[in-house]
Amino acid sequence: MANITNITSMKKALDFNNTEIAFADKSYRELRWSNLLYTLMNRPALVRWGSRLANWALRMKLPVEGLVKRTIYRQFCGGETIDEARPVIQKLGQSGIKTILDYGVEGKESEADFERTAHYLAQTLEFAREDEDIHIISTKLSGLFRFNLLMKVSSGTTLTEAERAEFSRGVARVSRICRAAAESGIGVHIDAEHSWIQTAIDELAWEMSRLYNQENPVVINAVQLYRKDRLKFLHDSLEHARKHGYLCAVKLVRGAYMEKERARAEELGYPSPIHDTLEETHRAYNEGLEFCLSHLGEMYVCNATHNEESCRLQAEIMEAKGLAPGHPLVATAQLYGMSDNLSFNMAYAGFNVEKYLPYGPVREVVPYLIRRTQENTSVGGQMSRELKLIRKELKRRSSQKG
Ligand SMILES: Cc1cc2nc3c(=O)[nH]c(=O)nc-3n(C[C@H](O)[C@H](O)[C@H](O)COP(=O)(O)OP(=O)(O)OC[C@H]3O[C@@H](n4cnc5c(N)ncnc54)[C@H](O)[C@@H]3O)c2cc1C
């Protein structure tokens, strides 16, 4: 792998259209396979019916895991256990890409489930401690607390005594995880979720950051810049960190729940918290990225995006500020199975790159897989970004053979 720390050469090396580097770790056969899968995912009707069918088959407890595992699961997930995910992690590591390991189970509601998730997270941390290619684990707090409880806390409603006790048990789970992460030198991404539970998540993230980000970016809170109030939140986060003397660590994302946010706002009759246009979201994202990169040292930032312009902007701002691409307080992250042209070309040019890799039983990660297929379907009859890149590389390799 090229190790480019010299800033002038950085510009030359960073080429997102270089599919040779983007897919260097994929065999011709693997690429052909991805081509087939993305071609199928590109069809909206197929994705719509396939998603319904998969949900139904799983609800009916039909034995479809094998089929899912051999197809879509392989594209987007590491394996059912951490051990099974190990070869993927190693392969990414060989290209200079670190793994953000995520136990991809969602939508649980019982105390036993939360304890189980906390147990898996602790196990993930143990594994990460032994493996230098993993330096972050990811968690959704809705996997450690009851959703309605997070909602009640966020709305400021007074809790009953039983609810207060329940909330304290959740806080203890999160604290246990963050403390273990700090002791192992591992980071914890706290994902951003629906706005109606986010206040509770943010408050807890700030408290954990105060406790564990004294020296390193251990607790990394996600900020969704599709929300109208998040630039202010970013400023407030830095102010809070300054006041309490810790490193403000954030993961910038645009946000994944736009339709639900808008639908709920309309249904309950409050103004949508989401920017009215995509352009406004892009503007807020750029401003957020510039803000974080201007306060490095007080801040750590992970630019978590599949948007090529956002990756280019990161490189440009860093260059203008004279920051080396591999600055320890800056990273970019993409999901496993997507946007390899960004991840592999950024890593090749010396930037810190992370891939978010879910693992877990097939049945449990189906909601995640459905979101990925929906994201990769054709919009307005256009071929998806991923499919174009895969075909370009297949064509390049075929012409070399011929
Ligand atoms: C590593 C990683 C971690 C992530 N973690 C989280 C997380 O913790 N929480 C979370 O919510 N999401 C998370 N996401 C998902 C992320 O929020 C986006 O949904 C996804 O990455 C697509 O955004 P993009 O930056 O790639 O940009 P693009 O593909 O350029 O933009 C698409 C995004 O723009 C916004 N948008 C689209 N249309 C409009 C419109 N009409 N008006 C206003 N805004 C619009 C939406 O947010 C949409 O997702 C993560 C993504 C990655 C890569």
Describe it for me?
- The structure is a single chain.
- The chain is of the alpha/beta class.
- The chain has a single domain, classed as Alpha-Beta Barrel (TIM Barrel), CATH 3.20.20.220.
- Helices cover 58% and strands 12% of the residues.
- Helix 4 packs antiparallel against helix 16, helix 7 packs parallel to helix 9 and helix 8 packs across helix 10.
- The two termini are 28 Å apart.
- The N terminus is likely disordered.
- The structure holds flavin-adenine dinucleotide.
- Flavin-adenine dinucleotide binds next to strand 4, helix 13 and strand 7.
List the helices and strands and how they pair.
Layout: H1 7-13, H2 19-22, H3 28-41, H4 44-59, H5 65-76, H6 82-94, E1 97-103, H7 111-130, E2 134-139, H8 147-155, H9 161-184, E3 187-190, H10 195-212, E4 219-224, H11 230-244, E5 248-253, H12 258-268, H13 278-294, E6 299-304, H14 308-320, E7 330-335, H15 340-348, E8 353-359, H16 362-375, H17 385-401
Parallel strand pairs: 1-2, 1-8, 2-3, 3-4, 4-5, 5-6, 6-7, 7-8
Bound molecules: flavin-adenine dinucleotide (FAD).
CATH topology: TIM Barrel
Q: Class, according to the CATH hierarchy?
A: Alpha Beta
Radius of gyration: 21 Å
User: Which blocks of ≥5 consecutive residues have pLDDT under 50?
Assistant: 1-12
Number of domains in the coordinates? 1
> How many angstroms does the end-to-end distance come to?
28 Å
Strand coverage percent: 5-15%
Q: Can you list the ligands bound to this structure?
A: flavin-adenine dinucleotide
What topology, given as strand order, has the largest sheet? Answer: 1-2-3-4-5-6-7-8
Question: Roughly what is the average pLDDT, rounded to an integer?
Answer: 91
Helix content: 55-70%
Structural class by secondary-structure content: alpha/beta
- The number of E-state strands comes to 8
Largest sheet composition? 8 strands, parallel, barrel
Give the name of the CATH architecture. Answer: Alpha-Beta Barrel
Looking at the structure, what is the overall shape?
Answer: globular
